[in-house]
Amino acid sequence: MIELEMIFIFVHLQQIHWINMEVYKFGGASVKDANAIRNLHRIIISAGTEQLLVVISAIGKTTNALEQVVYAHYHDTGEAFVQLQRIKEVHKDIARDLELEDLLRSGLLDDLFVEAEWLLEDTVHDSYDYLYDQIVAIGELLSTRIVAAFLEKNELPVVWIDVRDVIKTDDSYRNASVDWTVTAANINAIIRPLITSGKIVLTQGFIGSTTELNTSTLGREGSDYTGAILASEVNATSLTVWKDVPGIMTADPHVDKSARLLLKLDYLEALEMTYYGAKVIHPKTIKPLMDKSIPLLVRSFHNPVQHGTSVSSFPDEQYPPLKVVLEDQILLRLSTLDFTFVVENHFSEVFQLVVKHKIKIHLLKNLALSLSLVISPAPEHLRAFIDDLKTIFDVSEERGLKLYTIRHFKPEDINHIKKSGILLIEEYSSETAQLLVQCTS
Q: Which CATH number describes the domain made up of 322-439?
């Protein structure tokens, strides 16, 4: 009898794991205006999934606009309140277009702006990164309030959740690390009961909170990562990321007309692409899904019936050349002040400063007397990083460069890049080529 009970419990647990539970993540372009939100509603209606968790980014270019508010406040330009007011009107206009009179009368949107206004009224005494997270996170809270209200108006069983009550992080503002133990407990306590009761849970991407209840963010474009965290902890059937492209392409289709759709992509190949800067998915998204063997589906919200790309375990998949292009890169050349060799202690000093100033290195090349770093612009950290480097090294910098990374490259791909400008650095492995170019046209 005991054995039969144990078998029943095991089967029951397996059913919980394999139930048709899906996570949908919608990016900013998919909720950029009232018509886009209506399209989102149609996608959810047609999903046909038994249980659904929806993660939403800030509307359109709201994150960029809020970043300008932070900059204006921190540097006391006098424009912060004006810029914030513009953001408020954009969101209220969308709510009016969707005929969300109850939401507008409730004051929920105004309350979110009040939190930001309190910060803007104070003189700056906190770090830039702390202020950034407190202000920029408002974008996701606004978008989810509007979308939730629209879905409720259309009689969907939606429950709005503040993800800051769920995802807990350290206080590394702008790139916080998740406390997985506490986060998992919160997901089981807050989200799982709602989903199993038949509710559609709708929440924010990108943001979390610290143990001190300060808002934190998971890194730029971090909503994909939020989706992966939640999908992993509810043992979802899949995570679907809805984009303005057909799926994951061989190159950025906005700049390379020859880009074509990849129907399948192995987890490890996706990790490689995101490591080198492919922007279609956030770099931290893959690992939580891979650990649980949860497929990532990247699909177009313009054409929801299209298959898109499936990222899963495809170890034998063969790939064409996959291209990642990072523009506006900076080359820093470091040489020792006493003209000695660059040795291990110099590497240690450089990487300590990289961590301190939150700098992302895309390419590193060392020679006997110099060390070259290729990095992306980091407006609030770059100057201090270079100043600290100058206490140890002689530093020269060159800006406005392009870094090409090609996985599974062919000779003709390399030759084409070399013809586009002056080649500054090239690095090769068996599978990957990286070329830093100063473009001449």
A: 3.30.2130.10
